[in-house]
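User: Hey, my collaborator sent me this sequence without any context and asked if I could get a structure. I don't really work with proteins. Can you help?
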Amino acid sequence: MKKEYISEYAWSKIFTFLKGYKGIYIGTELRCKRFIEAVYWMSRTGAQWRELHEKYGKWNTVFKRFNAWSKKNIWSELLQFCIEDPDLEYVMIDATIVRAHACAAGYGKQSLEGLGRSRGGFTSKIHTKVDALGNPLQFIITPGQASDTTQAKHLLNGVFNTQVLADKAYGSNEIRMQIKNQNCEDVIPSRSNSLKPVNYDKHTYKARHAIECFFGKMKYFRRVFSRFDKSARNFSAFLSFVGVILWLR
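Assistant: No problem. I've predicted the 3D structure and written it out in structure-token form, which is a compact way to encode the shape of the chain:
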């Protein structure tokens, strides 16, 4: 087993955030880093909490701490803290489906926890916004059968004076109008059944591969590649943590 997964640079950034966060106990730097390493191990392997390697301490203690931080939105705030100087020459939005394991069921109402039934079976959908370099800016979780476009309005909030790249699923008049009203230019091809196809910058559209590459990198972490968490809150926490790791590479 690798001794450490978190680089010195990434750890210095994470620990700077944690030291300044009021209302949580982080203990010594060594123990705090061991906890973050444990979360990384869980993210990368997708193992059950009970299978956490003993070098990281008692699995239940680590889980309780992770869950407590999740309730306080610490993981999502950590992601926002690590987003430094994003390249907003253009932004990209898209969604990807992940299969949910049977152990993800059984907590509250499934639809409220971002779980549903699609052609792929028991699934969740991750709606994502990334910058021009493919770095994550925002995640939204919905049931797998939800349309990609349902969260476009929320993903586009706060996006101004740039180009928005998306595939033809986002080519509705409503989405194009929102982009225009926010002083942005849409780089979105028309749907195949469109009566009046729109012109778009095909050269710029080629850069949309960055968000697909991001999904590929994100799914190297098996806790994201397949959903095991019962609550959308904890699944979102793992997404934010993976986003942090990718930002600090």
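In plain terms: Residues 90-228 form a domain with the Nucleotidyltransferase; domain 5 fold (CATH 3.30.420). You can pass these tokens on to your collaborator as they are.
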